[in-house]
Amino acid sequence: MNTPESFAVVTTNLDIVAPTQAMDYLSAMDQSGLLYHLHDDPRDCLQAYGLTANQYAAIEHNVEQVLSVDWKGTRYECPFDYIIRALS
Fold first, then answer.
1. Residue (of 72, 54, 42, 43) closest to 8 by Cα position
2. Is the distance from CB of 66 to CB of 22 less than 8 angstroms?
3. Structurally, how many domains does the chain consist of?
4. Mean pLDDT across the stretch 39-49?
5. Domain of 78?
6. Which among 73, 58, 46, 53 is positioned nearest to 15, based on CA atoms?
7. Three-state secondary structure call for residue 13
8. SS3 category, 29
9. CA 83, CA 67: separation in Å to the nearest integer?
10. What is the dihedral of CA 33, 39, 71, 68, to 10 degrees?
């Protein structure tokens, strides 16, 4: 679904504080085709999509929050574990 409409959730600043919110965001990234290795720079990985500076800033903001979430109490150890086990 690589359309600007499918990018909306991924490229909007969100308040991600719970594992379920992080999982939802990562799933949205995957479904929109914007999932990349979270330690990389999205500008390098997603340059083919023609995103704006504001969209990149929102992605960075959201990914920073995803990486800060405490995954204890879930069946996943971290966001990378979720990506590998649930989205692959």
1. 54
2. yes
3. 1
4. 96
5. 4-86
6. 58
7. coil
8. helix
9. 12
10. -110
Give 42-81 as a 3 state SS string.
HHHHCHHHCCCHHHHHHHHHHHHHHHHCCCCCCCCCCHHH
Rounded CA Rg of the chain: 12
State the greatest distance between any 2 C-alpha atoms of the chain, in Å, as a whole number. 38
* Tokens describing residue 10: 């991924």
Confidence of residue 86 (pLDDT cuts 50, 70, 90): very high
Which two structure tokens, joined as six digits, stand for 45? Answer: 């990985």
Q: How many CA atoms lie within 13 A of 8 on its CB side?
A: 2
Q: What is the mean pLDDT of residues 73-77?
A: 97
Integer Cα distance of 11 and 82 in angstroms: 20
